């Protein structure tokens, strides 16, 4: 119980520090949410500043915003005046969760399969082809992968839409593939390297000498410890999916949380950016806790060392 309370306290402190740093960095950036090429009349600008508490001292603004957040109110959006930040996130988060979750699941499913296959055939032609493809997948950034997929499957073959979002599976296929490919490639390489190390361990060589089949060695003795590095990689993989969603959602015109983050940053929509940072930060904290629990289940010694 004490350890659980300590972890909850660490998580809350992390979120507070993240939100506070983001708050002051946004305010330090040049420009404001209502700046434009054609300046508004002074009385209009003053009314807007008063409405959104921008006429108050910086620390008073921080206190007002933090108090609202503690009540569950992320505030009004500056650039989308008909919506609150809570409404924008509630509408966009399911879209991003669907695409990001499917992309991570796809990366794990195919990455583990290809990594195990390559490890069992280390040094063969199949192994070299798979690892070459994985290296190519790692080398291609998402802002290159996404347009290539559009050019191939939408423009050339006319199989899938080039962009937009209608909630159907056809509009989700290309964004999910674009998000999944780099993680799939890394997962395959990591799985192969980890399994090769485990399969070369002394206790497995001894078990192989006693006549155990390679299939039994793999599933009964090698796979569980071989997955530990992959499980540890899940946290940075999630961050990769979250950061990549901003690019992919922009390219495909998807109304997800990553696109709102980019638009909010460009338009100095302070409350929207801070709201997205808090939600994404909380999601990462929860995922890190789940990953730690999964690693402790795979190897109880990790829990004893915590």
Overall pLDDT confidence:
82
Quickly count the helices: 13
What percent strand? under 5%
What is the CATH topology classification name of the domain at 94-305? Answer: MetI-like fold
Helix/strand class: mainly alpha
User: What percent of residues adopt helix (DSSP H or I)?
Assistant: over 70%
**Biggest sheet, open or closed, and with what strands and sense?**
none
Polypeptide structure, described:
It is found in: Cell membrane. This is ABC transmembrane type-1 domain-containing protein. The chain crosses the membrane at residues 97-120, 132-155, 167-186, 272-291. With 306 residues, the chain is mainly alpha-helical. It has a domain at 94-305: MetI-like fold. 78% of the residues lie in helices and 0% in strands. It has 13 helices and no strands. The protein has helices spanning 2-28, 42-51, 58-70, 85-120, 125-139, 142-156, 169-199, 202-209, 214-226, 228-252, 257-266, 270-298, 300-305. Helix 5 packs across helix 7 and helix 11 packs across helix 12. The model has no long low-confidence stretch (mean pLDDT 82).
List keywords for this structure.
306 residues; mainly alpha; MetI-like fold; 0% strand
């Amino acid at each position: 119980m004490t350890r659980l309370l300590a972890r909850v306290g660490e998580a809350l402190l992390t979120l507070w520090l993240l939100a506070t740093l983001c708050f002051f960095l946004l305010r330090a950036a040049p420009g404001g949410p209502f700046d434009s090429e054609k300046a508004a009349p002074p009385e209009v600008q003053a009314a807007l500043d008063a409405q959104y508490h921008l006429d108050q001292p910086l620390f008073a603004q921080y206190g007002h915003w933090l108090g609202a957040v503690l009540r569950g109110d992320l505030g009004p959006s500056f650039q989308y005046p008909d919506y609150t930040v809570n409404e924008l996130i509630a509408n966009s988060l399911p879209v991003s969760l669907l695409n990001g979750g499917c992309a991570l699941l796809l990366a794990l499913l195919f990455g583990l399969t290809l990594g195990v296959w390559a490890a069992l055939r280390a040094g063969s032609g199949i192994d070299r082809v798979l690892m070459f493809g994985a290296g190519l997948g790692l080398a291609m950034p998402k802002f290159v992968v996404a347009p290539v997929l559009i050019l191939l499957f939408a423009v050339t073959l006319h199989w899938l839409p080039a962009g937009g979002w209608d909630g159907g599976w056809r509009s989700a296929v290309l964004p999910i593939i674009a998000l999944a490919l780099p993680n799939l490639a890394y997962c395959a390489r990591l799985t192969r390297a980890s399994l090769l190390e485990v399969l070369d361990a002394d206790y497995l060589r001894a078990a192989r000498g006693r006549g155990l089949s390679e299939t039994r060695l793999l599933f009964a003795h090698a796979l569980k410890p071989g997955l530990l590095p992959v499980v540890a990689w899940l946290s940075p993989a999630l961050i990769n999916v979250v950061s990549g969603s901003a690019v992919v959602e922009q390219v495909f015109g998807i109304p997800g949380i990553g696109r709102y983050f980019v638009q909010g940053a460009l338009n100095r929509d302070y409350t929207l950016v801070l709201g997205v940072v808090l939600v994404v930060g909380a999601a990462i904290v929860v995922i890190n806790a789940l990953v730690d629990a999964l690693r402790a289940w795979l190897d109880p010694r990790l829990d004893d060392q915590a």
